[in-house]
UniProtKB/TrEMBL annotation:
InterPro entries: Ald_DH/histidinol_DH, Ald_DH_C, Ald_DH_N, Aldehyde_DH_dom, ALDH-related_metabolic_enz. The lineage of its organism: Bacteria, Bacillati, Bacillota, Bacilli, Bacillales. This is 3-sulfolactaldehyde dehydrogenase. Keywords: Oxidoreductase. It comes from Alkalicoccus saliphilus. It comes from the Bacteria. It catalyses: (2S)-3-sulfolactaldehyde + NAD(+) + H2O = (2S)-3-sulfolactate + NADH + 2 H(+).
Length: 483
């Protein structure tokens, strides 16, 4: 039976709009067309940004209480249609239905946190009399919205990563123009539906769909775009930075996350967390575990336990609640996995588990003895492949962890607080998870990395801070005794 193909529309300036040109959205599991989506032109994107800016300037002030209500109502709408959102995520992307349900729940939380943080957007008084000659001055600073935000989002969390940009932008009082990943635009459009139902002001949210090659330049170079919030690859991030000009940039550009397992660790917990961290979302996760460094005394035991638990994972139909690992987003990505593993094996690596491809599926794969010159060691894999390597001690593990040009998050398993703090202070990353894998995040925490892993921090409060500007107010009083 052939699946009915959805004819989707873009949400632009408070209206649902079609375009003459469209592109197809596929289910990566079977390459079936599930939707046809409008293909925006660069001229149209320019028009959308112009109108968003006009909407921003026409509202002298969008009251905080109204922002809070819009965000709360949007979250309530998503909660009401929770399963519809989850089905869409699982259908157009790589996540299993269980993983998709988890993403929907996190999205609701992200938007509700945004509503809470809108209430907390405050300034402070300034003691001007700290400087001699300013005894008759008093004042404060406050934060105000900066203008139109461009949000460019990836495929791997097609709902929550959009919410991480839209929620803070609206909480701060900014219009936002979203360009979702071409392979997963439907979830972003569903998010727009929730905000439309919640009464977002006309022009304060637009979701434009189309090719990044065709509309990306118009989006990032437009003078009315005041900040670009981008999640994606390093190469694309570098190009955006080159073309953006004098704009604020927030970028999360991926990682090659290490996990350290010391001999005093709870190996069962380390294996459980690291297998989940390596293979959830088919490994297409910026926080995903890629390299595991294990003290030699427990290396064999840990590797055997890890391989055994990996063998238990069920690969298959995303919509089945029994499935642990679905397909990669496109078959070309599975082919890349195959190519990188073959390269590593040709250089001396050994496949302990997995290493098999079937269309867009690639089995969860465990490698040992991987040369550090292999792509799977120093590049971001972004797939279901993990490397396990023995080390002498925590110092060597930290050195190995730091030798790639990424630094998003890391994990360390140990019962020794001194070793934990050594890792905390010497790992070159944006976050260290102690007795957990690198794949841990709550949506409120500051989130981001160093080196090629990005610029700035996401997390709702951090994003709102970046999406506002500070204005200082100083009163010079004519009668010094009045203060």
């Amino acid at each position: 039976m052939q699946t009915k193909v959805l004819s989707a529309k873009m949400y632009v300036l408070g209206e649902w709009i079609g375009q003459e040109e469209t592109f197809d959205v596929f289910d990566p599991q079977n390459n079936e067309i599930i939707a046809r989506v409008p293909k925006a032109s660069k001229e149209y994107v320019t028009h959308v940004i112009d109108q968003a800016a006009e909407a921003f300037y026409s509202i002298s002030s969008w009251p905080t209480h109204e922002r809070i209500q819009v965000l709360k109502k949007a979250a309530d709408y998503i909660e009401e249609y929770h399963e519809r959102y989850a089905y869409t995520i699982a259908r157009e992307g790589s996540k299993t239905i269980t993983e998709a349900r988890g993403e929907v729940s996190r999205t609701i939380q992200t938007i509700r946190i945004s509503a809470e943080e809108a209430r907390r957007l405050k300034g402070e008084t300034i003691n001007f009399d700290q400087m001699e000659g300013s005894e008759n001055r008093t004042g404060y600073y406050f934060r105000f919205p900066i203008g139109v935000i461009a949000a460019i989002t990836p495929f791997n969390d097609p709902l929550n990563l959009v919410a991480h940009k839209v929620g803070p932008a609206l909480a701060a009082g900014n219009p936002v123009v979203v360009k979702p990943a071409t392979v997963t635009p439907l979830s972003a459009l569903l998010l727009a539906e929730a905000f439309d139902q919640a009464g977002v002001p006309r022009g304060f949210l637009s979701v434009v769909t189309g090719s990044g090659r065709e509309i990306g330049d118009a989006l990032v170079s437009h003078p009315e775009i005041k900040m670009i919030s981008f999640t994606g690859g390093v190469g694309a991030g570098d190009k955006i930075a080159e073309k953006a000009g004098r704009k604020k940039l927030g970028m999360e550009l991926g990682s090659n996350s290490p996990v350290i397992v010391l001999q005093d660790a709870d190996l069962h917990e380390a294996v459980k967390a690291s297998v989940s961290g390596a293979f959830s979302a088919a490994g297409q996760n910026c926080l995903g575990v890629q390299r595991i460094f294990v003290e030699k005394n427990v290396y064999d035991e840990f590797t055997n336990m890890f391989a055994e638990r990996t063998r238990e994972l069920q690969v298959g139909d995303k919509q089945s609640e029994w499935t642990d690992v679905g397909p990669l987003i496109e078959e070309k990505e599975a082919l890349r996995m195959e190519e990188w593993v073959e390269e590593a094996v040709s250089m001396g690596a050994k496949v302990v588990q997995g290493g098999k491809r079937n269309g867009a599926f690639y089995d969860p794969t465990v490698l040992i003895d991987v040369p550090h010159e292999a792509k799977v060691y120093y590049e971001e894999i972004f797939g279901p492949i993990v490397l396990i390597e023995p080390v002498e001690d925590v110092q060597e593990a930290v050195i190995r962890s730091n030798e790639v040009d990424y630094g998003l998050q890391a994990g360390i398993f140990t019962a020794n607080i001194d070793h934990a703090f050594y890792a905390v202070h010497h790992l070159h990353v944006g976050g260290v998870m102690v007795n957990d894998s690198s794949d841990y995040r709550i949506d409120e925490m500051p989130f981001g990395g160093v080196k090629q892993s990005g610029l700035g921090r996401e997390g709702v409060a951090s994003s709102i801070h970046d999406m506002t500007e500070t204005r200082v107010v100083a009163f010079k009083l004519t009668q010094p005794w009045s203060i």
